[in-house]
C-alpha cells in the first residue's frame, strides 16, 4: 500500500509537487489543504500520524534496535513522544481545526490520547492517509541546481524539479535508500526531539542520576520516592512534572525534597502560589533564582548566586529543545543558519513571517512557534499561507524585503535574550504578540481574521491563565470549566475563508 503511494506521487510529477515532512498537526493540515490542487506526499518517520502526540513505548533506554534506526543515526536521539496521561495546556476549543469540533465527552483540557483520537478522526474525515508514506525517514533535501554533474548522474532518474529528497526505511538507515523530487518542500517535523542541556562545569563529578524531561515516563516516578530531586529549568515540562509529582501522585511516593532552579519570573510566580503553598512552607519544594555554576562534589552543586544545593540524588533538566534539521544541515545549500549559544541551536533563519525560507521560499517551515494560546488556529493559518503561495494565489515580497522583515522581527525578539531563543515565541504575554502575528498571517494570505475565536481566547482563556499560571497556580488551570461559556460543539467557522 505505502509503495503504491510512493509510485502514485512519482507518476504525478507532471503536476506541481509538494513533499511534506512529518504528519503531526501541521503536516496533517498541510496534507489537507495542499492535496486539492497539487501532487503531494507526506513522509512520516513513525508508523502512524500524530507526531509527538502518538505515544511511543520506546525511548533510548528500551529500544531494541536504537543504533540502526534512521532517526537516531541522524539526530543522535530517539524521536520525541509525549508521556502517558499528559493533559493539554489549552482548553479543547483552542485546539480544534476550523469546521471540526472535538467530541463533547472529551475533557475540558484534553488528555493526549483524546487529542490523538481527534487527529485520527480528522484524517479519516478528509481521507488524508492515502497521501502518507509511513515508516520512512527523510535524510536529505537538496537543491537540484546545486548538485554536481556526478551527483545528478548517480540518482538514476531525470531531474526536473527544484528539490531532490533522499528517503530510506526508518527502521534501518542503511536500507532502501531512494529519491523523490519536489517543487516545494514543507518541513513540519516539530522541534521537541533534541534536548537542550545547559552548560554546567564539573558535571562529571555528579554521581546521581541525571536526565532531560524528554525521557520522562510514568515509571520514573518510582525513582523519585524519598529522594532529593533537583529540576533545572521552569519550562512547561517542569510545571507539568511538578504537578504530576506533587498533586497527582500518592504522598508515599513523593520525593522528600524538590529544588526548582529557574529564572526570576518563574520563581516569583511560585513565591505567590496558593496551589503549592503547603509544599513551599514545609520546604518540600525549595526555590532558587539563578543558574547552576557547577558541581563541587558528587552530590553538591554551587549556584551563580553563591548558594549551595546539597545531597542531590537526581538532576532533571527541564531546559527545552533545539531546532534541528539534519536533512538540511548536511548539505552545502546553506538555506538556513542557526543562532547558537554554547553549541545550542536556539533558532534559525532567515525566515519570512517565521514560515518561508528567505533564500528559497519554496522551502516552508510550519509549526515552529511556541507558547501560543491559539495554537491550532495559528498552525492552520500558517498552512493556508503556504497553500496560497504554492497555488499562486498570493505572492511574496522580494528577497531583499523579506530579509529586512526577518531582521526586524529577530531584533525585536532579542529584547529579553540576545541569543535568539525568543524568536519563535508567539504569545499573549511575552515574545511576539499573538494577535499581531495572526493578523500578519491573515494579511499575507488575504483571509479574514477570526474575531469570534480570538475574542473567546482573549475574554475566557487569558483571564484564566492570569489567575492560575501567572500566579504560580498551574495545577488549578486544568480544573477550570470553560465549555459553558462558548457555543456547543464549537470550532472556528469552516466558511470564514
From TrEMBL:
UniProt cross-references to InterPro entries, sorted A to Z: FAD/NAD-bd_sf, Flavin_mOase, Flavin_mOase-like, FMO-like
Family: Belongs to the FMO family.
Coiled coil: none
Keyword tags: FAD, Flavoprotein, Monooxygenase, NADP, Oxidoreductase
One Pfam family recorded for the sequence: FMO-like
Molecular function as annotated in GO: flavin adenine dinucleotide binding; N,N-dimethylaniline monooxygenase activity; NADP binding
Top-level lineage group: Eukaryota
Protein's organism: Tetrahymena thermophila (strain SB210)
Protein name in the entry: Flavin-binding monooxygenase-like protein
Amino acid at each position: 500500500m505505502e509503495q503504491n503511494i510512493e509510485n502514485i506521487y512519482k507518476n504525478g510529477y507532471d503536476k506541481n509537487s509538494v513533499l511534506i515532512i512529518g504528519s503531526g498537526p501541521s503536516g496533517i493540515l498541510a496534507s489537507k489543504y495542499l492535496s486539492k490542487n497539487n501532487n503531494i506526499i507526506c513522509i512520516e518517520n513513525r508508523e502512524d500520524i500524530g507526531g509527538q502526540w502518538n505515544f511511543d513505548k520506546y525511548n533510548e533506554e528500551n529500544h531494541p534496535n536504537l543504533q540502526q534506526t534512521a532517526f537516531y543515526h541522524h539526530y543522535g536521539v530517539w524521536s520525541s513522544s509525549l508521556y502517558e496521561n499528559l493533559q493539554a495546556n489549552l482548553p479543547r476549543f483552542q485546539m480544534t481545526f476550523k469546521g471540526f469540533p472535538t467530541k463533547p465527552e472529551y475533557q475540558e483540557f484534553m488528555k493526549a490520547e483524546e487529542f490523538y483520537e481527534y487527529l485520527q478522526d480528522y484524517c479519516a474525515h478528509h481521507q488524508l492517509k492515502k497521501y502518507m508514506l509511513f515508516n520512512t525517514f527523510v535524510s536529505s533535501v537538496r537543491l537540484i541546481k546545486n548538485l554536481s554533474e556526478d551527483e545528478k548522474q548517480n540518482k538514476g532518474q531525470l531531474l526536473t524539479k527544484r528539490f531532490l529528497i533522499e528517503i530510506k526505511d526508518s527502521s534501518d538507515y542503511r536500507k532502501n535508500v531512494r529519491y523523490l523530487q519536489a517543487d516545494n518542500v514543507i518541513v513540519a517535523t516539530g522541534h521537541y526531539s533534541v534536548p537542550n542541556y545547559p552548560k554546567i562545569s564539573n558535571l562529571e563529578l555528579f554521581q546521581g542520576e541525571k536526565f532531560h524531561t524528554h525521557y520522562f515516563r510514568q515509571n520514573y516516578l518510582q525513582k523519585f520516592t524519598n529522594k532529593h530531586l533537583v529540576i533545572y529549568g521552569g519550562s512547561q515540562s517542569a510545571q507539568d512534572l511538578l504537578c504530576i509529582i506533587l498533586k497527582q501522585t500518592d504522598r508515599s511516593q513523593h520525593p522528600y525534597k524538590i529544588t526548582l532552579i529557574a529564572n526570576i519570573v518563574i520563581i516569583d510566580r511560585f513565591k505567590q502560589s496558593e496551589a503549592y503553598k503547603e509544599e513551599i512552607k514545609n520546604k518540600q519544594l525549595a526555590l532558587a533564582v539563578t543558574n547552576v555554576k557547577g558541581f563541587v562534589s558528587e552530590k553538591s552543586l554551587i549556584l551563580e548566586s553563591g548558594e549551595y544545593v546539597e545531597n542531590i540524588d537526581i538532576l532533571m533538566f527541564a531546559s527545552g529543545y533545539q531546532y534541528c534539521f539534519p536533512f538540511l544541515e548536511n548539505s552545502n545549500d546553506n538555506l538556513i543558519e542557526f543562532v547558537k549559544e554554547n553549541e545550542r541551536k536556539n533558532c534559525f533563519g532567515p525566515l519570512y513571517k517565521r514560515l518561508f525560507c528567505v533564500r528559497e521560499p519554496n522551502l516552508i517551515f510550519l509549526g515552529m512557534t511556541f507558547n501560543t494560546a491559539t495554537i491550532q488556529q495559528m498552525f492552520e493559518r500558517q498552512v493556508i499561507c503556504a497553500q496560497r503561495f504554492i497555488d499562486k494565489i498570493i505572492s511574496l515580497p522580494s528577497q531583499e524585503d523579506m530579509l529586512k522583515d526577518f531582521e526586524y522581527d529577530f531584533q525585536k525578539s532579542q529584547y529579553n535574550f540576545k541569543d535568539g531563543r525568543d524568536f519563535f515565541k508567539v504569545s499573549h504575554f511575552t515574545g511576539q504578540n499573538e494577535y499581531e502575528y495572526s493578523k500578519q498571517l491573515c494579511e499575507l494570505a488575504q483571509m479574514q481574521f477570526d474575531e469570534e475565536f480570538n475574542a473567546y481566547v482573549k475574554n475566557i482563556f487569558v483571564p484564566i491563565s492570569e489567575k492560575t499560571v501567572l500566579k504560580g497556580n498551574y495545577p488549578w488551570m486544568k480544573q477550570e470549566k470553560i465549555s459553558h461559556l462558548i457555543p456547543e460543539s464549537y470550532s472556528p467557522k469552516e466558511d470564514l475563508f
